[in-house]
């Protein structure tokens, strides 16, 4: 996981990537975290890691929990179907 040392998130507040809830201020934190991810040189390895390890919380690779859940669910449906 050498990619972790090159993440744009290293200089950001960790709480921003792991907001409590999904409304109000938390929505702004998620948007801000995704903006940081958008300029990150290791966005794809981070996203891949989160999907492979099924990270349940936080913003990883520019995706929040719900987005990862939907993607994983659709991948499972395609694999089964």
Q: Could you characterize the architecture of this molecule?
A:
The chain is an all-alpha fold and 81 residues long. It has one domain. It contains 4 helices and no strands. The longest helix has 16 residues.
Major sheet: size, sense and barrel closure? none
Determine the mean pLDDT: 91
Helix/strand order, N-terminal first: HHHH
First-residue to last-residue Cα separation: 33 Å
The domain count comes to 1
| Percent of residues in helices | 40-55%
Gyration radius over CA? 13 Å
Number of helices: 4
Structural class: mainly alpha
Number of strands: 0
Unreliable spans are none
Shape: globular
* Proportion of strand residues: under 5%
Would you summarize the structure shown here?
This protein is mainly α. The chain contains four helices and no strands. The chain has one domain (2-80).
List the helices and strands and how they pair.
Layout: H1 14-17, H2 25-38, H3 43-52, H4 65-80
What descriptive keywords fit this protein?
81 residues, mainly alpha, 4 helices, 54% helix
């Amino acid at each position: 996981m050498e990619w972790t040392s090159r993440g744009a998130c290293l200089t950001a507040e960790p709480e921003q990537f792991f907001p409590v809830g999904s409304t109000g201020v938390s929505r702004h934190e998620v948007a801000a975290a995704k903006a940081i991810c958008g300029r990150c040189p290791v966005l794809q390895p981070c996203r891949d890691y989160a999907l492979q390890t099924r990270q349940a919380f936080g913003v990883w690779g520019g995706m929040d929990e719900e987005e990862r859940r939907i993607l994983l669910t659709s991948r499972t449906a395609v694999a089964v179907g």
